[in-house]
Amino acid sequence: MRRPRKHAKKGTPQKYDPTFKGPIYNRGCTDVICCVALFIAIVGYVAVGIIAWTHGDPRKVIYPTDSRGQFCGQKGTPNENKPFLFYFNILKCASPLVLLEFQCPTTQICVEKCPSRYLTYLQASDNSKDLDYYKNFCVPDFDQSKARKSKTEVLRDGDCPADLTPSKPLARRCLPAVETHKGIITVGNETTFEDGWGQKRNVSELVEGAKKANVVLEARQLAMRVFEDYTVSWYWILIGLVIAMALSLIFIILLRFLAGIMIWIMIVMVILVLGYGIFHCYMEYARLRGEAGSDVSIVDLGFQTDFRVYLHLRQTWLAFMIILCVLELIIILLLIFLRKRILIAIALIKEASRAVGYVMTSLLYPLFTFFLLCLCIAYWASTAVFLSTSNEAVYKVFNNTAPCSAVGQTCNPETFQTSNVTKLCPDARCQFAFYGGETGYHRALLGLQIYNVFMFFWLANFALALGQVTLAGAFASYYWAINKPDDLPAFPLFSSFGRALRYHTGSLAFGSLLLAIVQVIRVILEYLDQRLKAAENRFAKFLMTCLKCCFWCLEKFLKFLNRNAYIMIAIYGTNFCTSAKNAFFLLMRNIIRVAVLDKVTDFLFLLGKLLVVGSVGILAFFFFTHRIKIVQDTAPPLNYYWIPILTVIIGSYLIAHGFFSVYGMCVDTLFLCFCEDLERNDGSPERPYFMSPELRDILLKGNAEAGKSEPQEE
């Protein structure tokens, strides 16, 4: 028989009592070793950032580089007014060397404008006006009269290109202006061109060279267009995110006072939306009856890049209608069979609403977590960019004529003319190849990048864990207060935040470390999977798929275990392993409630998130596609209208998830406290329940209906 517990007066710290399972104020530091390890890792991470910022140069990503390793268009340099990179012989870009070293084996210079017409050096040298125009595409400071070189010597020494072709800038590179007329490829309205050596060449060779030159630029071109869309639409994206924040906040406030009504409104809206979808699919299916080509099957049509083609098939709408009917039927059956559990979930959400109402500052805490995550992302991204651009310019020997044994060797452009290579290979050139290095620092760059990714995951998970423990501690103090809200601390959220940092930094570091290790392994597996896609080894692919599946499941399990372990840490102040063990076995002893009640609340919160995201997403779609007549001229012109729409949708989901995560953490904390309360107390005067009367009435009633042998209420 347990001895009764004497309740402490308001404001008096409660000493540890075996019969009392509530927040413990006399705590000690937990998992100190992990706390020290985190501190050392952060110091090392700062050192990596300093090293990267010392050696890195982000200009290598932004600006193209000529054969001398100079940036095109960089302010404060001789090439400030020359933003475009020009290739002397674009045909050389069709060489396999481009795929190996990402560099064309031809001279490259920075120019003000790309050439706009066909012209050879032999033709230009006979006309002073054409020669002046041609000099814009020769090496800097070239002057034939001063050099006293013949035409062939100029071409032999690579001072000027043999010919010019009409070009257009693409990702700041001058590439042939390819056009198609009735299936015929032309460049500057010509199908052939003179290569400057007296030979006629087909423009298809230019196209092939341009394709190889563009192999590394396609991703950058896409990124630049996306960046342009962001520069003209960021203001409207922010407005969309503010609207999402306002809708989430209004929804949370309404949930605070009208929890039951709001939940049933969400359920009814989902049923109505699915019902309208079924009706719309049937109407489209009936409308297409008898139209030419509408009876073609999807299999016969095959894959089409224009997905609008499928909307003209009756089979498409029939498939949509069947899928929506199945979803509608499943949801209705779940509502019928889980109606009592939904009532219990609503009661739990109502209790969570009361807890949030007494700890209103908890609604703003996701902003602090978001700020910490932004810091982690910004530091990781900047460090990654500086690390990737901290290589040095590497110059290699190139030769276009006779075979040369020195081709591919590294060289120094300052001493190249006096080296033995020029004697062995008179036509060889020392040209910029790529950014790299052979020092110990450059060999360690891969390891530093992996460490950068690992620390990003560790710190990001730590920030999330800190938020979970802080919210859990605040809501647990509400649950374990006998006289609500009189027994609550003056500032429950700040008190919980202080306890988490002061006593449990090591436990948070331990849990986030485990999760970070699994996430890094998953990233490595994804990288290896991309490398193995071209392989024909079926066993390796099968093994890789199994490993990816196993680590995905492990990550999900760790997130579930960590979340409940953090709640136990917030309540009892035990270390991570003890808290994880206690939380796991407590949940296993209440597996039916976990599988039904807890997941029902998650489903209800998901409906709330989708309601916010869907509303803002539809508004963004109509705005950025110029379908709102009132503001039709206000929407900015875009390369890809789906870029800002997708950004608004993802951002809205993150914002809604941030607000609803407060309720989710509150429900999980109250649910775990409820399970612990049932096991430790029986509702008698000696051991009263800590749950509120409203929660006790419906949860114990639902517990009895589930077949659990719970003590009867007085």
Automatic annotation (TrEMBL):
Enzymatic reactions: choline(out) + n H(+)(in) = choline(in) + n H(+)(out); ethanolamine(out) + n H(+)(in) = ethanolamine(in) + n H(+)(out)
- Which segments cross the bilayer? 32-53, 234-254, 261-279, 317-338, 358-381, 455-482, 503-525, 565-588, 600-624, 640-660
Q: Which UniProt keywords apply?
A: Antiport, Cell membrane, Glycoprotein, Membrane, Mitochondrion, Mitochondrion outer membrane, Phosphoprotein, Transmembrane, Transmembrane helix, Transport
Supply the InterPro entries for this chain: Choline_transptr-like
Looking at the keywords, is Glycosyltransferase present?
no
The record describes its membrane topology as: Multi-pass membrane protein
- GO molecular-function terms, A-Z: antiporter activity; organic cation transmembrane transporter activity
Q: Which GO terms describe its cellular component?
A: mitochondrial outer membrane; plasma membrane
Q: Does the keyword Glycoprotein apply?
A: yes
Signal peptide (residue range): none
Q: Where located?
A: Cell membrane; Mitochondrion outer membrane
Q: Name one Pfam family in it.
A: Choline_transpo
Main location, first listed in the record:
membrane
Family statement drawn from the similarity comment of this UniProt entry: Belongs to the CTL (choline transporter-like) family.
- Please give the subunit comment from the record: Interacts with COCH.
Job description of the protein: Choline transporter.
The protein depicted here goes by the name Choline transporter-like protein
The source organism is Monodelphis domestica (Gray short-tailed opossum)
Taxonomic classification: Eukaryota, Metazoa, Chordata, Craniata, Vertebrata
What's the name of its gene?
A: SLC44A2
